[in-house]
Amino acid sequence: MLTLIAASGLPQPRVNAWIALDGNTGYEADILWPEARLVVEVDSRTYHARRKAFAHDRQRDRRLALAGFETRRYAAAELTSHPERVVTELRSFLTRH
Fold first, then answer.
1. Does domain 2-89 have CATH number 3.40.50.11540?
2. What is the pTM of this model?
3. In the chain, is it the N or the C terminus that has fewer CB atoms within a 10 Å radius of its CB?
4. pLDDT for 92
């Protein structure tokens, strides 16, 4: 994802960035554009297909949304199979925000 972002000319994000939430909790975002409040997660079946991880990811997305962050999830395979679509979507979101 970082190679794709750099090659596309998108603004440089923060990587593995901690987002603090209420109650001394928070999450580490794979990729974060703090000004746009955009979190991007790259999910592989290895780590995100298990039932517990799947449920945790959804809870995490809801908690981040309540804190004003929008999460975009991409399957790892999308980065190689449809890189132009990923870049177009990210550019569109970042342009609006």
1. no
2. 0.86
3. C
4. 96
